[in-house]
Design brief:
Strands 22-23-1-24 form a four-stranded mixed β-sheet, sandwiched between helices. Strand 8 and strand 9 (about 145-150) form a beta hairpin. It is about 35% helix and about 25% strand. Helix 1 (about 20-30) runs parallel beside helix 6 (about 190-200), helix 7 (about 235-245) runs parallel beside helix 9 (about 310-315) and helix 9 (about 310-315) packs parallel to helix 11. The protein is α/β, with parallel strands linked by helices. About 50% of the residues are buried. It is globular and about 65 Å long. The two termini are about 20 Å apart. The chain binds uridine-diphosphate-N-acetylglucosamine (UD1). Uridine-diphosphate-N-acetylglucosamine binds near residues 126, 164 and 329. Uridine-diphosphate-N-acetylglucosamine binds near residues 93, 124, 166 and 329.
């Protein structure tokens, strides 16, 4: 089983380049099959969630041509079925975007219901509410798939009861090919919602207001092919910002949109770190005497829930007591136990939504496992700060959303490798000045 294996204690220094946004790309891949003409996508991240989506699109008959690692051409004219019932699609949550896309284009869709990271109950009632408002009937089949169909989709005024990225994108996908005007109120404003809308507009859709809480869509009869570069990943960038801060490093993070990182930068500044913004890059320098601060996650432009474990790791090394309130998902503190194994002092309230973080002087290496995608990244950051060796197992979660995570960290001077067995771990330990006792110690933890 693959693990990240690292020796902590080296401040990260240098430059790292951020890839395309996974969460935007998932919506964009679904949108790309809504025309019969080719859609050329650039800056597609090479991560496992994206590869699952590409496989699903290809398995229903779309032509998927990978021109290079980050460029793909999708042609939806050869789609043979609107049923996406492959078991593997349950592994990614965003497979539900295929419902909006297929329903919009063909007025019928059936997709195996999604999985994703185990971060709490993740209902899809708002997606269904939107599809139904547009005139679709929705049923859950005995096999656990969502079936949606409509004789015709007709634009409507839809009030979302919850601000949901997924529901906003899904309903937007279906509505661009509905008759008449759709208004989505209480829409999510995340950069990836805007990116999907921008692509759809390049394909001939008429969407206004993406990035605000009211999105207005004039339905069009059909969409056409285009070329589109995917927006840089806000969360990957934020993760490297936190890694720079946690290790007291000095890192220039390239290919970012600094505006998307404002709230993350603001928290780092509160901690006493330095953040310099340039046109398409941001430089973060850590502060060995970090101040505590409080964080509450909320929809964009609030602090992203997907950055919560990473900032908790930095705050665990700050002076004083910080509080983090999770405002989006129920189970987003599963990593706390692992971080506490490494010497952090964090308690989570009984209700599970508030963590109290008493800053400690440092972490020590341990064998920990990633409970979900972003928590896995946070544990790597902790390992890079820790004294001694750390192994992070279950890295399949991390690989869902971070391309070449260890390679990029190594580029910044981190001592980290991916190992598949004990022998490789031993080789790494010996090559970094440790001895076999270090390995035994780690196994005994
Ligand atoms: C997306 C992101 C995920 C991020 C999250 C919040 C993708 C593929 N994933 O997930 O990384 O953590 O946004 O920024 O883009 N809700 C309902 N009913 C619904 C839909 C959502 O009650 O029909 C609730 C959820 O339980 C959650 C909140 O709304 O409490 C926000 O969820 P949502 O924005 O939909 O998250 P996802 O789109 O699943």
């Amino acid at each position: 089983m693959l693990q990240f294996f690292m020796k902590g204690g080296t401040p990260l220094k240098g430059e790292v380049t951020i890839g395309g946004a996974k969460n935007a790309a998932l919506g964009i891949l679904a949108a790309a099959i809504m025309t019969d003409e080719p859609v050329l996508l650039e800056n597609l991240p090479d991560v496992s969630d994206i590869n699952v989506m590409l496989r699903a699109i290809s398995d229903i008959g779309a032509k998927v041509e990978r021109l290079d690692r980050h460029t793909v051409r999708i042609t939806g004219s050869s789609i043979q079925t609107q049923k996406v019932l492959f078991d593997y699609v349950r592994n990614i949550r965003a497979s539900y975007y295929l419902i909006g896309a297929l329903l919009g284009k063909y007025k019928t869709a059936e997709v195996a219901l999604p999985g994703g990271c185990a971060i709490g109950a993740r209902p899809i009632d708002q997606h269904l509410k939107g599809f139904r408002a547009l005139g679709a009937t929705t049923t859950i089949t005995d096999e656990g798939a969502l079936h949606a169909e409509a004789p015709a989709l007709v634009g409507r005024h839809i009030f979302m009861d919850v601000v949901s990225v997924g529901a906003t994108i899904n309903v937007m996908l279906a509505a661009v090919l509905a008759e008449g005007r759709t208004v989505i109120e209480s829409a999510a404003k995340e950069p990836h919602v805007v990116d999907v809308a921008n692509l759809l507009n390049r394909m001939g859709a008429r969407i206004k207001g993406a990035g605000t809480d009211v999105i207005r869509i004039h339905g069009v009869e059909k969409l056409h092919g285009t070329y589109y570069p995917i927006v840089p990943d806000q969360i990957e960038a934020g993760t490297f910002m936190m890694a720079a801060a946690a290790t007291n490093g000095d890192v220039l993070i390239r290919n970012v949109i600094p505006k998307h990182l404002d709230v993350i930068s603001a928290k780092l500044l509160e901690m006493g770190c330095t953040v310099e913004n340039y046109d398409d890059s941001v430089r973060v320098c850590g502060n060995p005497n970090k101040n505590y601060t409080n964080v509450k996650t909320s929809p964009y432009p609030g602090f992203p829930t997907d950055m919560q474990p990473q900032i908790a790791t930095v705050l665990a090394l700050a002076n004083g007591t910080s509080m983090i309130t999770e405002g989006i998902f129920e189970k987003r503190f599963a990593y706390v136990e692992e971080l506490n194994h490494m010497g952090a002092d964090i308690t989570v309230c009984e209700k599970g939504d508030v963590a109290t973080i008493n800053g400690v002087k440092g972490f020590h290496g341990a064998a920990v496992s990633a409970p979900d995608l972003r928590a896995g990244a946070a544990l790597v950051i902790a390992g890079l700060c820790a004294e001694g060796y750390t192994s992070v197992s279950d890295i399949k979660y991390v690989l869902r959303g971070y391309e070449d995570f260890d390679v990029k960290m190594r580029g910044l001077g981190a001592q980290i490798v991916t190992v598949s067995d004990e022998k490789e771990a031993e080789e790494f330990i010996l090559s970094t000045g440790g001895d076999c006792d270090d390995l035994r110690e780690l196994q005994a933890i």
